[in-house]
Structure formats: C-alpha cells, structure tokens
Amino acid sequence: MNILDILGPVMIGPSSSHTAGAARIGRLAGIVLGEPPAAADFYLHGSFAETYQGHGTDRALVGGLLGFDTADERIRQSLELAAAAGISISFNRTDLGDVHPNTVKAMVKGKSGKTIDLVASSIGGGNIRVVELLGFPVDFSGQFHTIIIPHRDRPGLIAAVSSLLAERGINIAQMKVTREQRGAEAIMIIEADQSCPTELVEQLAAIPDIRDVITVRPL
Predict the structure, then answer these.
(1) What number of other Cβ atoms are within 10 A of residue 203's Cβ?
(2) Domain 145-216: top CATH class
(3) What is the pLDDT of residues 110-124, one digit of tens each?
(4) Which helix (H) or strand (E) holds 171?
(5) Residue 217 · residue 148 · CB < 8 Å
(6) Whole-angstrom distance, CA of residue 119 vs CA of residue 91
(7) What is the pTM of this model?
C-alpha cells in the first residue's frame, strides 16, 4: 500500500470513486478507441446511476474520454467541450448485474465508425477494475503498462508474443487470454513492468492473426 491508496489521487473533486476513477475509465475508453470520438453512451450502475450528476461522474467520464487527466480543470467543462466538438453523449441508468456499485458500461464510436465497449468499476481511491472489454470478460487495473491484443486463437500465437516481449527485456507481470471458443476470436491482456516501444508494437501487429495491438500506460 502506498500513500495514494490512503489519501487518493490529485483530482477534480468531490469523490475519488466518482470522479478520479470515472475519469480513468473514460481515458481508457478513449485509448482503446484510438481515434477521436464521435459518440459515447454510458450505462451507469448502482451508486454511479444514483449520483452521477451530483458527484460529477458524468463530467469525469467525458473528460477522461477527451484525454484529460484526473487533475485537469477542463473536466468541469467537459460536457460543454464535447458538445462543441460535435460529440454525442448519453447517460443511461441500468442494472449491470453482480458488479461493484460504481460500475459503468461505455460504448464509444469513433469518427471513422469504429466502435468499442468496456465495463469497468471505480473501486476506491481513484483505482479502477476493468471487467469486460470488446465483449470479452477480462480483469485488469490499468496500474501497469498494459498491452491489449485482440486476435484469432491458434497454436503458437501466445508463444510468439511472449518471445518478442522477452527479446526486448519486457517482464510480464500478468497475462490473461480469453477466447470465444477454440480457433475463434480471442483477447490477450498483458500487464508488464516496462512500456512497449513503437517498434515492438509494429512487430507484434505483424504476427499473423493478431487483429490489433493497443498499449496503455499506467492510468
């Protein structure tokens, strides 16, 4: 445990769970999208659904999507900034089932028409937990250098990825692979101790049957 776990992050208030965590979830959605957003629909569960306007969760989610850090003053004007940029935003109360009370599902569309979705929880102190990504169940925090690799399941692909990372001296802290079924679409989530340089991203993307390589620095 470090001092941030006790005091929480530097942030635009009033609540680390409802604002800092929400901003990090929004930032992650923007990073995974990888292009300017055109529209975003947020489905809010539990406490998020009950208090999202009063606690600024709505502004934090949109501010994060626009790329703002948790302490960025522009979060306060994020809804207006999104509207000025022509980004369509909606907030919807929903029941996401057996998840943390501060959970949101984000469905985001980019300017090119690309769409992504994720489900994540703000678990306190500004920390988050991602539980679903691109339709796959996942489990990661965004506290490590994270590599997200959608791919087609086949023998040897995980070994090829691991070998490239080892050659570049990147240590894997955690890895989880989830697939629809044998030989079908899958996703690999790698949490590493070091960042993934651009050249390595290009090498990974060149491996047959890898759909995309998304890198996320610690949020």
Answers:
(1) 18
(2) alpha beta
(3) 999 999 999 999 999
(4) none
(5) no
(6) 14
(7) 0.91
